[in-house]
Model the fold of this input.
Amino acid sequence: MPRPPGHGPEFEIRRQKIIDTAASLFASQGYAATSVNDLGRAVGLAKGALYYYIGSKENLLIEIQGRVMRPLVARARQIAGLEADPLVRLRLLSESLLTIIFRRLDHIWVYEHDYRSLTGDELQTLLNQRAEFEQLVMTLLSEAMDRGILRAFTPRLAMLQFFNLHNHTYQWVQPEGAWDPAYLSQEYCATLFRGFGAPDHTLPIVEERAAEFKRSHPGHPLDPEHAWEQDVVPDSASAAIG
Done:
């Protein structure tokens, strides 16, 4: 929901806290089972004051979904547009996706379980975002197949395997545990790339170039919620993998 005219930063900070609290409640209780009164009690607001910040319960669901998908799709576009080998871009995109899963577990849970509660234009917007993200991954996989880096098979099936491996992480991951997004991304991509037919010698190269990209581009964080500075990609990331 857009911020109403005339409201300053304090209003937006409070509204964002309400959205985060709603994500936690929806994840633990379910969207349908959580009433506006439940949310009001959790944030210390009467119903009228709560609606002043959120507009409606459905608007909350839209904001929770958008908190995940808007930055994620934006970052995926930037990564896909890099002058780097397609496997390196897939590896960076994988880590970006896992970063937001770690950061927004409650939001991801609601996104995966309750997006069908949206209707009309709001639902179509979300479906369009999902479709664009899937297409970006599928295009990178197709490029790798066309270059002979991966064996040729149905790109859509490869894309579904990519997401099947990543998207269930939210169900079991412990953000404070031993496995961080970079480690899981390395392991996931090793499993996928080997299964997709990449020669074993390419995997260390992918990791080396992904690490070099992150070292040499501190202004290009993989975290979808942090903006990128304008820069160029180093030659070490853009060189072809053979």
Remarks:
- Residues 120-146 form the longest helix (27 residues).
- Residues 1-6 have pLDDT under 50 and may be disordered.
